[in-house]
Every structure is written in structure tokens, then in C-alpha cells.
Automatic annotation (TrEMBL):
Keyword flag Amino-acid biosynthesis: yes
CDD domains, A to Z: ACT_HSDH-Hom
Record domain ACT: where: 351-425
Taxonomic lineage of the native organism: Bacteria, Bacillati, Bacillota, Bacilli, Lactobacillales
Biological source species: Streptococcus macacae NCTC 11558
Protein name: Homoserine dehydrogenase
Gene3D superfamilies: 3.30.70.260, Dihydrodipicolinate Reductase, domain 2 (3.30.360.10), NAD(P)-binding Rossmann-like Domain (3.40.50.720)
Amino acid sequence: MSIRIGLLGFGTVASGIPYLLRENGSKITDAAGNTLEIAKILVKDNEEKNRLLAAGNDFNFVTNVDDILSDDSIAIVVELMGRIEPAKTFITKALEAGKNVVSANKDLIATHGAALIALAKEKEVAFYYEAAVAGGIPILRTLANSLAADKVTRILGVLNGTSNFMMTKMVDEGWTYEAALAEAQALGYAESDPTNDVEGIDAAYKAVILSQFGFGMTIDFDQVSHQGISTITQDDVAVAQQLGYVIKLLGSVEETPSGIFAEVSPTFLPKSHPLASVNDVMNAVFVESIGIGESMYYGPGAGQKPTATSVAADIIRIARRITEGNLGKSFNEFTRETVIANPNDVQSNYYFAVDTPDKKGQLLRLAELFNAEDISFEQVLQQKANGERARVVIITHSLNKTQLANIKQKLQDEPEFELLNTFKVLGE
Ligand code: NDP
Ligand code: HSE
């Protein structure tokens, strides 16, 4: 008897699964310990069903989710619709019905994952979601299994394929923002609402999930500050290049002496840093730990086949467990009490771009403001701006989040200074 699967949604990722089952059938059957069969696929309506059938997709398409949820022969439900609802309701019902669930839905897992994980545990079924973080990179299972003996201290990641693709096209090839976004959408990288990609929200969801697997703590999505690529200007890119950096949208999760901290922000990376050469749709997760030291996991962060491969790996793992009769083990068993870091313990160097009248004494005044907050400069650059204005670029030595908030406020209070942008700067 095959292990029967119900797919919820048949978009970019889901439609890659039949390809893998077809092209790699015997290996998958050996690994799963059984043959896998796509029994039913949920689509939105009859129009979509007829369109897919006419296009040669020979599957049992259904338009009512109950056709899958009430089908006792279906053991694994694979949710690939995205967004919170109705995905949350459908997954909840599937788990309640004793079905195992695979999902790639980071929005849902980062915001409502705890309840779904608890329900899966109560029902002794599996709930796996490897594809939710960094698409084709098998990072969650690596953290849960291969780093089980290690203590992770910091995770840095290029975690959004769309924004990395867009930045690469805009910076290296001179594309416009609009053209780069349209191409990312055409290639199936972007979310249905690409705001999540370009505003750092998607990467923040992934940081939440990484906090669980890397640190055993569940940081709330609301506690992950996020800033996206839409805030980066051509001037920022040019000055970064001039000073030997590249700008990447980086997610970071770190454990400080007082607790855990996570954020997503455009970050100046020295050109020599391994993450600096992660381009196009590629993602990378750079892990610092006391055992391995530094390790980096690199691969496509989005796209049909890479993501479907991660989803299929979860399906195979569940099928194997069904065959062997040992379901119910949590995807991630590392859990500790969540303690959020004191802002004074969260340290980084920063880039400041400040617009000011181009007149005597302004640089000195700026230095006094920073000095009053005990912030020292590593590099300073003054550039001629439009008219009688100057643009001062500062790379600071390390400062903490309290100092950062204070100096931003001070600059805001000074009518002659306009803070154009401030980003984190990673050390060598
Ligand atoms: P798509 O938008 O391409 O596919 C989702 C499909 O589900 C669409 O065809 C959509 O129809 C359909 N759908 C939505 N709601 C329903 C519903 N109520 N009933 C039936 N069908 C429904 O998304 P992706 O395949 O790109 O992404 C799927 C999931 O995987 C998301 O959670 C995404 O975040 C995640 N993911 C995606 C990656 C990628 O590279 N694309 C990488 C990693 C994760 P319609 O279009 O009509 O709304
Ligand atoms: N939209 C996401 C990205 C898909 O571009 O990274 C993968 O999670």
C-alpha cells in the first residue's frame, strides 16, 4: 500500500513535487520505505481545476478541503498555499484528524507555530517545515541534528532570495527596482505579497524559526525589528563600495549574556566576509558556535525545485517514520525558557549617513554629539551633496542598542542634521 498525500495548493512549490516523485522515484521509494502517491490536490475553484486538467495535469483535483481532511487513506497533508488563513485552519484540522503535516509557510509557523507544534505532539503526528527557512538549504535539520552537541552563539543569514536577487541585479547590473522585483516574481521567488520580501518581514519570520532551532528559544515575531531593502539608496551602495563593503539584507540571531536578540536589517559586510559573495537568489546561513566554530550553509533560497526538494525530504522522513511506526517526535526538540537580551548587551558597529549644511564646525558638532554618547569613529568621510549641503558618512566602533537609540534621537533633535540612513556594519 502506498503512502497517500494530500496537497493543499498547486502553485510554484507544490507543482514541483510531482516532478521529483517522477524523476527520482526509486530513490524516494527506498528512502521512504514505501511508494508515495499524490492522492488529491486542493485548488481554489472549478475554473482552476479545469485549467490545470486542460494543461495536462493528471491529478485528482478537489475544491473542498474536507475531501482531503476526511479521507482516512491520506496520511500526509502538505500545505503549500501560503499566508495565515485558511492555512492555519486547514493545518489545525489536519492535525486534529491525526494526519501528519508538512508546510513551507514561515508566516504561519513564525506567528502560530507553537500551537500547531503542541497539537502535533498531542496527536502524536509529525509537523515538519524544513522549506520554511532558506528554501533549498537544509538548515533546520542540520541545526536540530548535526549541531545537537554544539552551542550556537550567533546566526547570520542572507535569508530572503527575492531581495538578494533584486539587490544583485540593481547593484551589479543596473536594473531598476521595479524590473528586479518583476523578474523575481516571474521566477517564482517572491511571496504573493512581495512587501514581505522587500521590507524584511519574510526574513524576520525565518529569524524567529532559527531562534527556535539554533537557541531553543521562541522569540516573538513582534520582538524582531525588521528593515528591508527598500530603505537602501544608491548613495549608500556607492559609499559601501568605496569603503570596501557590500550591503546585504541580513537576519541575525545572537545570544548575549542577558538573553537572545534577533533583527533583520541591511548590513555593511566587509568584501572578505563569506556572506558578501552570496548573490542572486542564493541564501546562506553563517553559524558561529563553540564546537564547530564558523560554518556556512549555502544554496538557493527560493524557487520551485530547490524548495520542493526540501518539502519532499520532509514527506520522505514522515513516510519512513510511518513505515517504521515511530511518529510523533518533534521536528525540533531543543527548547529553553525564552529570555530577551538587555539592549545594552547587543553590540555592533554602525554606518551613519548624515546630511548637513556644508559650513564650518559641522563635523566638529557631529563628533561632539557622538562623543557625548561615548561613541567613537572608525572611519569618517565627507562628501559634497546638492547645493550648499554636505553628506557625512561615519562608520563607528562598537556601540550598543541604547547608545544607538540615544544618538538617533540626538540627531533628530538637531535641526541642522538629517539622519539619512543607519545600518549595521559587520566586523572582519
Ligand atoms: P504560490 O502563490 O505560487 O502558490 C500557492 C497556491 O495556493 C496558489 O496557486 C494559490 O492560488 C493557492 N491557494 C491559495 N489559497 C488557496 C485555497 N484556499 N485553496 C486552494 N488553493 C489555494 O506560492 P508558492 O508556491 O511560491 O509558495 C507556497 C508556500 O511556500 C508559501 O508559504 C511560501 O511562503 C513558501 N515558500 C515559497 C518559496 C518559493 O520559492 N516560492 C520558497 C520557500 C517557501 P491563487 O494563486 O489563486 O491564490
Ligand atoms: N519569498 C521567499 C524568498 C521565498 O524570496 O526568500 C523563500 O522563503
